[in-house]
Design goal:
This protein is of the alpha/beta class. It has 10 helices and 10 strands. It binds adenosine-5'-triphosphate and magnesium ion.
Length: 247
């Protein structure tokens, strides 16, 4: 049932941060292709910093990041985007005073015109709700719709690896289901997803692999269902105390 997947992203002893003290320390992990890997951990653990380092937004002071067998080195984010890595940062960052249509056109600015038209059609097929909101200002969309718009704008560039930082942050339960269903759909289309989530139970329910991070280091990893049953994870994140306990 669990056939091994090839590694699409290989983090080798990655150390990264903003100043003298590194925030991420000696982080090694192999991300399997066409799967969802979820990174969980307490506030300040370095989860966002690790995602930013993969996208080239933080100074990486040590280790290697290898994407599709090529080391990314000091490539800037735009070059990583061209190589097939997409990043949706924590918090909403679309343009609230522009319509859905205008936002989606902006998302294609790196593409040639014919390719841009196809990209918009492709994401509208994946996010029909955005077609229905075509002329609505992004700022007037629901939280869930705004998150879908964020993902759509990045997916227009057809990344093979999608980095999502807390996609469910601030969403109502209904919007949250919609966003997680969409992430599962993106993965079914063969895109590899690495996401950071505080909503551990809902996120791990759609994930293949889970990684727990604390104080900049990896403290636990495994199949998502196994990590969810880990007593330490249950105690900290799920309000439980023992593996296999009934809810
Ligand atoms: N731009 C920055 N400049 C300096 N320090 C930063 C910067 N961003 C984050 N840090 C520091 O790095 C550490 C890790 O932050 P990071 O945002 O990676 O954690 P996180 O695990 O994503 O936390 P959260 O769950 O709260 O989002 C924190 O101590 C934070 O203060
Ligand atoms: Mg964060």
């Amino acid at each position: 049932m669990t056939e091994p997947r090839p590694t699409i992203l290989d983090l080798r002893e990655v150390t990264a941060g903003y100043g003298d003290e590194p925030v991420v320390v000696g982080f090694s992990h192999r991300v399997p292709a066409a799967a969802i890997t979820t990174l969980v951990g307490p506030n300040g653990a370095g989860k966002s910093t690790l995602l930013r380092a993969i996208y080239g937004l933080v100074v990486q002071v040590g280790g290697r990041i290898v994407f599709e067998d090529e080391e990314l080195g000091d490539l800037p984010p735009a070059a990583r985007l061209r190589r097939g890595i997409g990043f949706v940062p924590q918090g909403r960052c679309n343009f609230p005073l522009m319509t859905v249509c205008e936002n989606l056109q902006l998302g294609t600015y790196t593409l040639a015109r014919a390719e841009a038209t196809r990209a918009v059609e492709r994401v509208l097929a994946l996010f029909p709700v955005l077609r229905a909101r075509w002329r609505v200002l992004a700022g007037n969309l629901s939280g869930g719709e705004q998150q879908l718009l964020e993902m759509a704008m990045v997916l227009e560039t057809a990344p093979r690896l999608l980095l999502l930082d807390e996609p469910s942050l601030g969403l109502s339960p209904a919007n949250l289901d919609q966003v997680f269903d969409t992430i599962a759909d993106i993965r079914r289309r063969g895109v590899t997803v690495v996401m950071v989530e505080q909503n551990v139970e809902a996120a791990l329910a759609i994930s293949d692999t889970a990684v727990v991070m604390d104080l900049g280091r990896k403290v636990l990893e495994g199949p998502a269902h196994a990590v969810m049953e880990d007593p330490r994870v249950r105690a900290v994140y799920l309000g439980g105390t023992a593996a296999g306990e009934s809810r």
